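I have been asked to look over a protein record a colleague put together. Alongside the sequence sits a line of tokens, each denoting a local backbone shape. I have pasted the whole thing underneath without changing anything:
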Amino acid sequence: MSFFTFAYLIRLGVWGLAAALVQGGLLALSWLAWERVMANATAALRHRMACIHFAALVVLPVLTVVVVCWTVAGMGVPALPGSPAAELPLLMASYRKVFWLCLSLVMLWFAGALLMMLRLAMDARRVARLHRRRAPEAMVESVHRLARDRMSVRVQDIQIADVATPQIIGAWRPVLLIPRDLACVLSMAQWEAVLLHELAHVRRRDFGWNLLQRLQLALLWFHPAAWTLYGRVSREREACCDALAVRHGASATGLAQALVCLAENRVSPHLGMAISSQGELTTRVHRLLGVNRTGPLPAGLRLAAIATSMLCLLALGAGRLGLVDPSMADVYNASAFGPMILVDAHDDAGSFALRIKQGRVIEASVGNQQLPSDRIVQENDRVLLMSARRQPIVALTVTPQARIEWEGRR
């Protein structure tokens, strides 16, 4: 990979990070507005809207980078004869300054993303190393009956483990982990409500979706909006499972009581699904008991939410700012992604034309005569156009940006 190709990719990475910062702030404002608007909406609708905002944290920067590429590709080639090859040392010095700055930012982001990935791997390893044993047969039959008759799902296994709250692990072969002596602590209604909540996670395939969202969070570790929206997605996911459990026969009161009981010994489940989320217990209990309904919305709040969401889309126009950086087009033209560039030149002896790609002369013509490839001799940036008698016609210096310099012919 050439220096210019690598430099172009690094610059695009910086554009993506900058777009994520700007658009992420707008998305956070958009969610805050929609959260107020949807205060009385169903848990499923709130969760869907939170997921849309969280996914947009990645989708919008990617689209912005696409706009940058499209903008730069349309900037064209600068007036080549006015920028001779003799300027290359100065140009390269400026390119390298920008390159090292951009590379430092991208490497910082990469280091943070790698640490987040390692943390995720450690969480998975911690779950895998839990001391587990198969649950008693009566408990297994009870869970399978609830899964089959109430939720229409299948659980691969039910195990007793050293966890503080029940949780589902596994995306394709879900396993239910149950704390020791949990059945002795909860009443029958509470026990059944807790199991239905966990089975709701299986039905919604929450483990797999949560894993994907953790991976996205690892990529966006630097952005406060990513952590805020991930927290909102997690909160609404739990509310969805609460509502689904109640809809399939769980006691709302029993589930609320179980949440309070389990919260006393809660630990962070990481990859597993939690029966409660720290700091959100009161809200969840109020929702289950139907005591958190809000009053009429302020006038214009819905319009403000829509307008903020539209601003997130308009922020795609940030990609057009590539126009303010002419050197971006230079790096693009010199990279493997750049176009074949046609250079027309003339001096006292007549005209000649070149087609250049990444500093390599692909085709050449002198006057109206097309030169065969064996009469184009290039070594690094030095090019000789040869006559049929193998005599030099033109001696050129060619840069990766398709700038040329030659000694005038007479």
